[in-house]
Amino acid sequence: MVRKSTERCPLKKMHVFHGAAAHSEFRRERLFNDLQRANPALSAIDSRHVYFAWFDAEPDPAALARVRDLVGPELPTNLPPQSPSVLVTPRVGTISPWSSKATDIARNSGLDRLIRLERATLWYFAGATAGSLGDFVPHIHDRMTETVLGDVNAAASLQQDAAPRRLQSIPRDRDALARANRTLGLALADDEIEYLCERYDELGRDPTDIELMMFAQANSEHCRHKIFNADWRIDGEMQRASLFAMIRHTHECAPNKVLSAYKDNSAVTTGYAGRRFFPDPGSGCYTSVAEDVHVLMKVETHNHPTAISPHPGAATGSGGEIRDEGATGRSAKPKAGLTGFSVSHLRIPDHPAPWEQPRALNDRLASAFEIMRDGPLGGAAFNNEFGRPALAGYFRCFEDHTVATDIRGYDKPIMLAGGLGNIRPQHVEKCTIEPGTKIVVLGGPAMLIGLGGGAASSMRAGTSDSDLDFASVQRDNPEMQRRCQEVINACWALGEHNPALSIHDVGAGGLSNAVPEILHDSGRGGIIDLRAIPNADPAMSPLEIWCNEAQERYVLAIAAHRIEDFMAICRRERCPAAVIGEATTDLQLQVNDRDAGNAPIDLPMDVIFGKPPKMFRDVLASERAVTAYTTSGIDIPAALARVLAFPSVADKRFLITIGDRNVGGLCSRDQMVGPWQTPVADCAVTASGFGDYTGEAMAVGERTPVALLDAPASGRLAVGEAITNIAAARIMKLSDIVLSANWMAAAGHPGEDAKLYATVRAVGLELCPALGIAIPVGKDSMSMKTQWRADGSDFAVTSPLSLIVSAFAPVVDIRQALTPQLRLDCGPTTLLFIDLAAGRQRLGGSILAQTDRALGDSPPDLDDPALMREFFTAIQLLNETGYVLAYHDRSDGGLITTLCEMAFAARCGIDIDISALGGDPAAALFCEELGAVIQIRGADREAVMAHFAGYAVLAGNVHELGHAQAEREIVVRHGDTTLIDESVTDLLEPWSRTTWQMQSARDNPQCADEEYAAIRDPDDPGLSLVAPVTPVAFAPAVNTTRPQIAILREQGVNGHVEMAAAFDRAGFDAIDVHMSELLAGRRSLAAFNGLVACGGFSYGDVLGAGGGWAKSILYNDAVRENFADYFRRDTTFTLGVCNGCQMLAHLAPLIPGAAAWPRFARNVSEQFEARLVMVEVAASASVLLRDMAGMRAPIVVAHGEGRVAEPIREGVCLRYVDNRGAVAGSYPHNPNGSVAGVTGLTSADGRVTIMMPHPERVFLATQFSWIDPAWPHAEGPWMQIFHNARRWLG
Questions:
Q1: Catalytic-role residue among 221, 696, 969, 1256
Q2: How far apart are CA 276 and CA 795, in angstroms?
Q3: In 10 A of CB 778, how many CB atoms?
Q4: Within a 10 A sphere around the Cβ of 163, how many other Cβ atoms?
Q5: Looking at the DSSP assignment, which residues form a beta bridge with residue 687?
Q6: Is 1256 part of the annotated catalytic residue set?
Q7: Is 1254 one of the annotated active-site residues of the chain?
Q8: Cβ density class 385-418: b for 16+ within 10 Å, e for less
Q9: C-beta atoms surrounding 492 within 10 Å
Q10: pLDDT tens per residue, range 531-583
Q11: Could you report the per-residue pLDDT of 619-642, keeping only the tens digit for each?
Q12: Which of 390, 1208, 1126, 284 is nearest to 1136 (CA)?
C-alpha cells in the first residue's frame, strides 16, 4: 500500500505461509557443490519460499484462505527438522518488486485490507552447525539488496511502524561541512564547500542535511559533467575549448536534421513520414495516423551500480535510460534498446583461458564472471517486462598486464544502456510552465534505496565507504514503469491536447534533481509538500524522502485545469500519481513538511543552479611503455581458434536469447541472422509503423584497447566502426547519421586526462566535422578506476580511456537491410574486400595480440575521412541498386573473423586467396583496421568494380578475395600456400564455446549442452517454410463492416499494440480494453464477439505467469460471470497469446471444452527464451487455424513459463518441430521443454485458441529475422490466423 508520508499504519500481526521449493534441483545441486567446498561437513541443502502477509485489520479465515490459494500449497522440506536454517528476505526497509506486484494481485482479488504480501527464502543446511552458517551466507544472498535473518519470526522487522527520522541541521563552518561531506558521501570538492559556506552566510542560517544532499546530487560529476565543462591546461598550455564545447562543435558544423540537442533527456532527429498506430483517446479504437515519425535516441551508462550488484544495477540502468526516452519533449515512446558490457577477463569457473593471468580481485565488487552471469539478465529482464525489444549491443572483455605497475581492465565495468524511440512533431519541445502549474509525481513510491547514487557514481570504486555503496544500489520494477509509460502514451496520443507540458524522469538524485530541474527549465520556483510524495516507508527522514532514487518515477508539469483529465488516465492504468506542489513566479524552492511544521528546504534557485566554482584541470600528458607485437612464426590455424574463442569475438547468443527482440511488432532486423539464427548482424533496424517500409537503424562502435596505444585513434575507430556497422542499413546519406558518444575515463590517473582531451578533440573538432556528422547526445563517466587494499597490499585496476559510440539514422527502406549471411541461391558469386586502411595492417590492440597476453605498439586508425565518406556512399548506392547480396564489417578478430561469421550465418564454406593483401598473411587476416566484405553476383563483378573505380580515394582499395561454396570448408590461401583448411563445424566449436560455458554456469546445463550440440550439428538444415503460397481468403464483408474485437490487457501486458495492428489489418475495429474497466463495470464483454488476451508480463508474472490476472477475474463475481457468459455464447471467438495464453489456461473452468488444458510451467532452461523457432500446425477444431493444418513455419517465442509438463491427449493445435520437421524434444528447438512439443491448444468446439508463440509479431514478412526468400507476400504466413477470425464471423 502506498501511503502519503503523513500516514502511519498501526503494527499488525504477521501471518506466515510456508510454500514450495524455491530452487530447482539443478540449481540446488550447483550451489551445494560450491557450499560443500566452503564447509565439507555439509551433507544436503534445501530452500523453501515463505510468504508474509500484513493486514490493516485482523483478517477472517476466508481472507487467509485466499492468500493461501494465491501463494500455493506448502511443500515441506525433506531434510531433518533439526537442520540449521536462515531466512533471506528483501533488505529491511525496502519493499521487493515481487511484493509490489503480489500485493496488487491480492487487492484486485478482493483482499482490500491487505497492507503487504512479501516473499522470502528459508534455507536449510543438513550436516552443518549453527555456528558454521556464516560460511554459507555470502553464497545465498545479495548483500546489497537482501537481509539474512535468524528465523521466520524475525521477518516482522520487514513491516515496522517506526517514527520518521528527523531533519538534521549542519553548522555552516568549513570543518562541519567537510565532515558531512564524508559521512553523507556528497563527493563535494573543497571549492564547493567554500561556495556553500559563502551562500549560507548570505542567507544567515545553517544548511539542512537535505539541502546539502540535494546540492551534491545536482552538482555531482554525474549530473553537472564538471570535467566536460572544465577549463584545461595541458603540459602548461591553456586549451581553447572545453570538452563539451568540442562536442557541441559537431552539431554547429552539421546541424543536419537534428531537432533537439543537448537540452533534453534525449536527442531528436528528423524521421520519415509513417503511420503511428494507437488507440483513439475518445473511443479506444485503434487507428493509424499519418505524420512524420521523428526519431529520438539516448545512451546511458550504469557502471557503479552494476559493479556493486550486477542484476539490479544493469536492470535499473536499462530502466533509467528507458525513462529518459519517455520523458523527452512533452512525452515520447521508447521503441528499441541496446545493451553493452565491458568487463575484465571472465575467469569462468573450471574453464581457464590462456589469455587470463592470476591476480588479486576486489571483493567489494562483483567479478567479471558474476557481472556477465547476472548483469545481462537484469538488463534483459527490464526490457522484456517493460516491453522494449533489445536489438543491438556489444561485449568487450579486456585486461592488460604488459606494464606491471599499471594493470588495465574493467573491474569497474561499463554497463551501456541505450535505445531509440519516436516522438510526435508537436511534442519535441517542452512547454514553458506558468505559475500555478501543478507538479505531479507519477509512478512508484519513495523507498530507502539508491540514496546518493549520483554522487556515489562520481567516486572511484573503492574510495567510498562500503555502506555508501550499499545505499546507492537500486531496485527495479519494470511492470510499474510499464504502467507509467501507458499513461505517457495516452498523453501523447492526445496530440495538441496533451496534458503534459513538461516531463522529467526521476533518476540520479531522485526528486531532489527532477523537481528543481523541471522548474528551472522554465525559470520558475516552486512550493512542494513533502508529505504529499507517495511513500512506502513512513520512517524515512526528509532527506531520504526527497533524495532517494526509487525507480520508475517521473515528474510532470500539468496545467491546473487539466489535472483531473490526467488523473483519470492514471486511474485507468492503475498508475500511482500525486500532485506534490506547484510552480511559482518567485525563484525560490520551498519544500514544506507539514508533519514537522517546518521547511526542510527554503533556498533561492540560484544556490542550486547558480554558478558554483568551475572546475579547472591542470594535467600532464604521459605515455605508457609499449612492446612491438610480431607475427613471426605464428601458427595461423591455432591463432584462429584462439581468436574465435576470445569472448569479445565469440558467439554472444547467451547475451541475446534472454532478451525479447520482437515485442512491439516493429523490429525488422535483430542480432540473429539466417536460417541458423547466427548472432552476427551489424545493426538493428525497426519500421516506422506497421506496414511502413521506412524506419530507423542503430549500431554500436568501440575499440577501447587501442586507447592504451593511441587514444585519439581509439576514438576515431569507435566512430568508424559505428559507421561501418550501420552502413548495413539503407540510409540515404552519411549526414543522416547522428551519434551518441559515451566517454569513460579514469580522471586523475597519470596521463588519462590528457588522453581524454586529445580524443575529444580528434572526434569533436576533426573527424566528425570532416564526416559531416553531429554528436547531439552522450554521457560521461570519469571514475573508471578501482582501488582496494587486501592482505596488507594496495591494488588498483584502471580502465583504458573508453569511447563507446552509438549511431542512429532514419532508414529509407527496411527491406534492403544487408546481413552477413552468404547467399548460395544466386549463382556464382564473388567476395570483395573493401580496405579502409589503404593497405595498412597494424596489429596493436588486436584480439590476436590479446590472446598472446600482449598489446603491441602500432594500432589501427581511421586515417582518411574521405575514404570513409566514399565507402558509405558506394555501399548505399550498390545496395539501392541490388548489387550487394551480403555485407559484414571488419572489426574484432580481423578479416578472417569477418569471413568466418559470414560463412557461419549461411553454414557454407568459402574459398579465398589473400595474396593481393601483402606479404604478411597473419597481419592481413588478423589486423583490425576498418573495412568490410561484400558478396556480389559473379555476373555483376565488372559493373561493381567499375562503380568503385569512379571514386577518387576508394578506387584501388577494393580487392577480390574469392567465393562462397556449398562445401562447408573454410579455405584460405596465400598464393600457392594453404593457410587455413577447416570445416565450418570445427570452427563453430571454439566460436560458441564461451556461450556454452556461460549458459552451463548460469542456466540448466543440460540445455546448454543440447544447444552447443545443435550449433555444431553439420546436418542441421536450418529453418524452413512449408506453407500455402496462395493469397489468403478475405471475409465477404471485410471491406464493408468492421466488427469490434476486445484487445484485452492487464497491468504489465505489453503486446497489445501489435495484436491490435494484426486484427486491424484483418478487418476488425480493435478496441483497447483494460481490466480496470471490466472490474469497475465501465465495460462489458457483452459488446464483443471477439476477444484476445495479449502477451506480456501481467503483474510481472508474479504468483505464476498469468495466474494473478486470472485470479482477479475468478475472485470477482461480476467479472467472472461476464467472462463465463462470453465464453458460453456460440457467436464468439477468443485468442490467448503468451501471457494471455497462460491466463486463459487458468480460466479453463469457465471455458466449455477446455477441461484438459494444462498450466504452463517454468521453462526447463529456467531462462526467458526469445527465439525464432519452427512450429507446425496440427489438425484441430480451432476456427483460427482453419485450413492451416500441416503448415510448418518459423514463429517467435518470448517467455519464461511456457512448458507443458504433462502429456496432452486432446485439443493440441500447435507443436514445436525441429529443423528436420520432427516433433522437437530437445533444446533449443523446443525452447521450454514441453512434452511432445505442445505449444498451442484449442477448446473442443474450436472457438477458444491459446498459444505460447506470437503470431502477432510476425504477421508481416518484414517482421521476421529470417523468412524464406521465396515467400512472395507482404504478409507473413501467420497472418492467416487473423484473416480466419474475420472469415469465421462472416
A1: 1256
A2: 54
A3: 23
A4: 8
A5: 695
A6: yes
A7: yes
A8: bbbbbbbbbbbbbbbbebeeebbbbbbbbbbbbb
A9: 22
A10: 999 998 888 999 999 999 888 999 999 999 999 999 999 999 999 999 999 99
A11: 999 999 999 999 999 999 999 999
A12: 1126
